């Protein structure tokens, strides 16, 4: 039960040999505005490009003649053991890109036993998603107002989430010129230009666009302010970015009201990592938001080591531009416990629904497993700085 028939999936997925292939496969299948929204970065795309190039700065030093016949990519995060050291990153408005994409990514993640993180900017109600995947994590932007924080924490906890991620690198929306050029807005505002864009991609329109409207009403952002019940018109609740006045005090307020694990996403400075640790945060995501926020910012890979020196017992995630098993292993070697990956999983859901996401997870898992053997390690905790030059 996905956007395309299973036979077609198998045919399409035969051409997808790695995570980057998904983007090439969907580029012409998606309306320009939708593809641009997912693939794009901020301003000149300097950080977006750097996120891919940065990995070449490190090379592996392999170890030989070690018995690597029994390998495991198992990774324990917050007391739960997952199958691999990567997770599906939170992405807003996913269901506009691929039909029911949040649920499909969440289901594939659950079946493969990797973490899935739901964005508060998704159009799938957080309660519904928790039914699909009871182990999903939740990610909100630096909202809402202080007086709503307790209610927000209660709603997310009542739905069954154990991990609350607060995305802290969006005090204001960034300048994404590709969205201006194509007419993409969030929440989605139907315009003649968008309609034309959709009509010229009839397969997306029938397979995702119209079906989403039929299921959810006019696509809107439903979990923006988690104190509010999602409705078709919930876009009237406010903007989709963070709140410029939101500061450490509010993060600490969430810490006080949230009984589960609390993670800050979007940290690039070691000073902020230290404040996070002192504030009782359980984990941080070292991230430049996939090059979608401040253009010219460093890649997580540039700062992972120095940040790791400040993190103590916190769980450390990294994201932005990870596409290969070798990329993941390089981050683990610099001290990350797990990597988040965004765009490829959303493109996979757009291309082939749950089967596409399954395929993506399998490809990356296999790369990590093979690369570990070639590197001469049998478990992820054996990957340390000594494997890198
Ligand atoms: C994002 N990202 C994001 N992050 C977040 O905390 N909340 C959100 O709602 C979103 N929304 C979102 C939408 C889309 C379409 C993309 C591509 C990304 C950022 C995301 O969680 C992650 O940090 C990056 O996507 C990681 O970079 P890569 O793997 O896409 O290069």
Provide a descriptive summary of the structure in words.
InterPro entries: Aldolase_TIM, Alpha-hydoxy_acid_DH_FMN, FMN-dep_DH, FMN_HAD, FMN_hydac_DH_AS. It is a single chain. The chain is an alpha/beta fold. The protein has a single domain, classed as Aldolase class I (TIM Barrel), CATH 3.20.20.70. Helices cover 42% and strands 11% of the residues. The chain is built from 16 helices and ten strands. It has helices at 6-13, 19-26, 32-39, 46-53, 94-97, 101-112, 126-132, 149-158, 177-182, 192-199, 202-216, 248-257, 270-278, 300-308, 325-333, 343-375; strands at 75-77, 80-82, 86-88, 117-119, 137-141, 163-167, 261-267, 283-286, 315-319, 338-341. The protein has an eight-stranded parallel beta sheet with strand order 3-10-9-8-7-6-5-4. A two-stranded antiparallel sheet has the order 1-2. Helix 6 (101-112) runs parallel beside helix 16 (343-375). The radius of gyration is 20 Å and the shape is globular. Ligand FNR binds next to helix 3, strand 10 and helix 16. Ligand FNR is lined by residues 37-38, 51, 89-92, 119, 121, 139, 167, 265, 287, 289-290, 319-322, 340-343, 346.
